[in-house]
Known about the structure:
This protein is α+β, with helices and mostly antiparallel strands. The protein has a single domain, classed as Sufe protein. Chain: A. Helices cover 47% and strands 18% of the residues. A 3-stranded antiparallel β-sheet has the order 1-2-3, with helices on one face. It is globular. The relative contact order is 0.18.
Amino acid sequence: xxxxxxxxxxxxxxxDHSKNPHHHGVLQGADQVSLNNPTCGDVIHLSVAFDxxxxxxxxxxxxxxxxxxxxxxxxxxxxxxxxSKQALELADIFSKMVQGETDDRQKELGDAAFLAGVSKFPxxxxxxxxxxxxxxxxxxxxxENNG
Length: 147
């Protein structure tokens, strides 16, 4: 069965983000959180630097499958320069999208919108949302620590 042009583009974008992840590494002095997906072994270490409420820099490290790594790369591209509130809204849109919900705001996800097809593979949803959940945890921890 031949792949459609859209499927081919999806595969190319996901493969590129997985093989050449953006913002890969660790930021010293930044807020940090580590999460894992015990069902497949994916692990992410997320570093987020803030300037006030704006995400001024972000990086991730760890070991993950193609979808987890690609999603992490896409997420870091998308939220850098955004406020905590904007980042949480994007995380919510992404989470709903990979669970099969459609929303006009999905266009705000940039490359991450290519992961909408994950909804057809429930066992991969946790892979795709790991980085986004780490981001939510960093922001939650920051709010708790700063009152």
